[in-house]
Amino acid sequence: MVMQEWGEVQGGMCGKAMLMEGRAWRYGDNVDTDVIIPARYLTVTAETELAEHCLEDLDRSFRSEVRDGDIIVAGRNFGSGSSREHAPLAIKGCGISLVIATSFARIFYRNAINVGLPILECPEAVEDTRMHDRLRVDLATGRVENLRSGRTFQAMPFPGFICELIEKGGLVPYVRERLAGRGGVA
Fold this sequence. Notes:
Blueprint: E1 4-8, E2 16-26, H1 33-36, H2 47-51, H3 62-65, E3 71-74, H4 86-93, E4 98-101, H5 106-115, E5 119-121, H6 123-128, E6 134-138, E7 143-146, E8 152-154, H7 160-168, H8 171-181
Parallel strand pairs: 2-3, 3-4, 4-5
Antiparallel strand pairs: 1-2, 2-6, 6-7, 7-8
C-alpha cells in the first residue's frame, strides 16, 4: 500500500496524516464479492494468489494494468454478497491503496478494516470521479481531492483506533503487536 505519513493534522481522528495518491478505477453500483473474486478461487487464501483473479469477470484489463497505490471508486452497495474476507484480501493484494464508494455492504466494510484495507464512503467524490482520474486522499481527515477536476470532497474520517488497525495492516497484526508488547503470545 502506498501511504505516506506527514506529521500532525488538526482535526483528524488519526492524529497524523495518512496521505494516498493514485489512479482511479471507476465502477458502478452493486459490485459484489463474486465479481471482486469469483467463487471458483475461494480455495485460495494468499493475497497474492487472490490478486491474480481480482475483478477478472468485471474488467479484463484491471489485473494487467493496476498499479500499486491505485484506488477503486464505485457506486452503491460495494462488496455485497459473501461474508468471506477473500474479496478485500484480493483487492489489497493487487496493491489497491483504498476503496471509495457511495456505500458498502456492512460485512465487506468490516472485513476490509479487519484486513487493513482502507475504505471511505463519499458519494460526492464517486459522482465526480472518472476512470483513471488521479485522486489524493488523506484518511486522517477524510479529505478526497480529484486532481483532474480540482474539486475536494469530505468523507467521514476514521476514529483513531481504526486508523491504528489500518496502519498495522489489519486486526491480526494489531493484536499480535499488542500481545507482544504485554509479554503475551505473538
